Amino acid sequence: MIYVTHSYLPPLEEYVSYLTGIWERNQLTNNGPLLLELESRLSAYLGGPRVQFTSNGTIALQLAIQALNLTGEIITTPFSYVATTSVILWEKCTPVYVDIEEDTFCIDADKIEAAITPRTSAILATHVYGYPCDVVKIEAIAQRHQLKVIYDGAHAFGTKVAGRSLLTYGDLTACSFHATKLFHTGEGGALIAHTDEMAKKIWLLKSFGHFGDDHMMLGINGKNSEFHAALGLCMLPRVTDFIATRAQLYQLYHNELAGLALRYPVMPAGIEYNYAYFPVVFENEAQLLDIKQLLAENEIDARRYFFPSLNNLPYAPGESCPVAEDIATRVLCLPFYPQLPPMQVRRIAGLVRAGLTRKLPVAPCTI
């Protein structure tokens, strides 16, 4: 079976070398030396912001809402993973959906101001598939209306805008380091802050709100362990190679699918892209379902990512967002990860081509 993602694991002996130190120190969690080293290395990789390693990306988003003291309405995107909406609801705020751009599938910055009300406290936008939101326009809107900006950067690790990490824009950016991500720690996430004061506040929020016997604020357990930090330390030096390999597979997919009636997100000019996913947009939902079924019959897992449009969730309905609703019914992410052999890319593309041109499926590949 070929899955839509496939987690990379470093050489076992490399990971075991970190485990040996954990066994010697007998400190498994609670801000151990490996966790602190990972936070420091991530900060350096991103260009200097304060990185707080968390138990997952969803907790990071919840911590962001708490750290910024948000209430009332939060403007957000309907085209994202469900966590982007669920954290808003979990923190007793109200999601207000703004439709997405036709090209990048990120929130349409030109439509944000019309959604602002006296109850609006923030904008929570997602860098979809690693493509950047219009961070310049969103910052200007936030400044005009005195709003906070949180970015869901779950897909954005490794992408740069104007030579600067995409994760360093906004008041706070939440990351996911889930096993399926380009950079992962098995389970994990991070919150990217810009000041020591904010980093300290996030640290307290994720550490039950106290340091030693001094209790400063209400908090939760959002910490991560030495085991997850060790995996991250193995992974981080490999990110550049991962992105380079993904770029080659991305181009191969495009070459193999050339000439078909498919749409792709448009890469904005002037960015260094991380090639996080390979989404394709079909002409209609029926076509997508046919291709998805054909791939499944050939033991290939493709994912409807994202579906449904979040404004159609039964527990968080919102105003109509026609672009997001349309794209959500037609977009499919094909298998895409550095270990995917080029021959398999050709096979997957061949099946898509066969399905769209009503030819017989290509023969299964034995690799």
From TrEMBL:
One of its GO terms (molecular function) is transaminase activity. CDD domains: AHBA_syn. Signal peptide: none annotated. The keyword Nucleotidyltransferase does not apply. Pfam families: DegT_DnrJ_EryC1. InterPro entries: DegT/StrS_aminotransferase (IPR000653), PyrdxlP-dep_Trfase (IPR015424), PyrdxlP-dep_Trfase_major (IPR015421). Keywords: Aminotransferase, Plasmid, Pyridoxal phosphate, Transferase. It comes from the Bacteria. Belongs to the DegT/DnrJ/EryC1 family. This is DegT/DnrJ/EryC1/StrS family aminotransferase. It comes from Hymenobacter volaticus. The lineage of its organism: Bacteria, Pseudomonadati, Bacteroidota, Cytophagia, Cytophagales.
